[in-house]
Amino acid sequence: MLTRAQFNNLDYRRHQIDTLKVFNDNVVEIVELEEYCVHFESAARNFILTVLLTVNFPNERPKLILSPRVRHCWVNPLTGEVEKAPGLLNYSPHSDLGRVVQVVIREFERFPPSVIKNSTTVSSSNLILPLSINISHSLDNINTVGAANNTVSAMQQQNINNYLSQQASPHESSLTTSNLPNLSTLSLDELKKLDNDPEFFNDFIQEMSVVQQLNEELDSMINQLEYIARENLNKEGHLVELKRKLSDDVNTLKNLGEKCDQLNKKYLKKSDDYAPQHIRELLQIAVSTADTECERHVEQFLNGKIDVQTFLQNYTHSKKLSSERKAKEERLGQQLQALERAGF
Fold first, then answer.
1. Whether residue 228 has pLDDT greater than 70
2. How far apart, in whole angstroms, are the C-alpha atoms of residue 317 and residue 335?
């Protein structure tokens, strides 16, 4: 076990290990902070990718070892080590360990490599093999020693139980190997049948209490999802009604906006009409009109078109009107000048 003094940055090392568990499924811790196994399938074959973290990690890239050994351009066929993956070739202390491993696993899942015959598991800590592989090795050992023993070695039994305990349910810490079947009680024929007969193997797995518990949890989750789906369907009518109401409110808001624009245009027009400067201009025009009317009355009198009484009456009225308007215009002009001097 590595001590804190051996790590350049223990917190960042743990963070990298967390990314490994986040981006990948079936991660099994072999040695804390040092060695991890990721179990995956490709073309109906079980593989184990061992992740070895050196003392200088994350400053030094991790070692990835695939078991069983395969023929692939990324993998060294002699050692099973993944050497030429892009994530490893371009590795830096800022790389995510989980993403690097995820890309390697996806490559093998998308393009299943050919397995080298008679290849053995490569690991520095006696990796835990998948159940079917362990059983095959157990049978080979039994046949070598002799069929009379009809038992599986203690180490193989421990490997099988450890693997099953890791694969059973990563979210339930209460599950222990005591819930798993004891393979040492099976006969040689049963072990062979378990290894060779997929249907018997599936039945054997389904009868395990761990699997049954997982199935119960799955059924519970399915029921919960169905309940949520029904609730969503029941709320569909209310949601449609809310959408309709929202659409009506949007139309009302649109109509009010158009009405507001029309009223605003009227307001601007009225503001221009009643602006002091515009009123002064209108008064100037009115004075000019009244003066023109006075001149017209004089011309009519001189031409004999109207009598003296009519001339005096019309001329006096027009002149009075012109004087009043001129006085108003001059007074308004003085007020505007005073406001302008005051800064308004």
1. yes
2. 27
pLDDT tens-digit profile of 179-189?
A: 555 676 778 88
Q: Is residue 26 part of a domain?
A: yes
Quick one: 179 exposed, middle or buried, by C-beta within 10 A (0-12, 13-18, 19+)?
A: middle
Q: Which domain holds residue 90?
A: 4-115
Q: What is the CATH number of the domain that holds 39?
A: 3.10.110.10
* 168/325: higher pLDDT: 325
Say which amino acid occupies 257: G
Number of domains in the chain: 3
Tokens of 272: 């221009």
How far from each other are the two terminal CA atoms of the chain, in whole angstroms? Answer: 85
Q: Which residue has the higher pLDDT, 3 or 12?
A: 12
How many angstroms separate the Cα of 257 from the Cα of each of 104, 246, 249, 261, 274?
Answer: 59, 16, 12, 6, 25
Q: Are residues 208 and 236 in the same domain?
A: yes
Q: What is the pTM of this model?
A: 0.36
